Amino acid sequence: MWYFAWLLGFPLAAAFAVLNAMWYELMAREDDAEPVQPAKPA
Known about the structure:
Blueprint: H1 2-32
């Protein structure tokens, strides 16, 4: 029955790693972004 732990645990750990990387990229992009300047009226 040990294979059930691998069958469920490995994809769960991989999904967590992917989501963690996506979250890191999202937060890094927001930190590096320049502040948005409001458009000047023409």
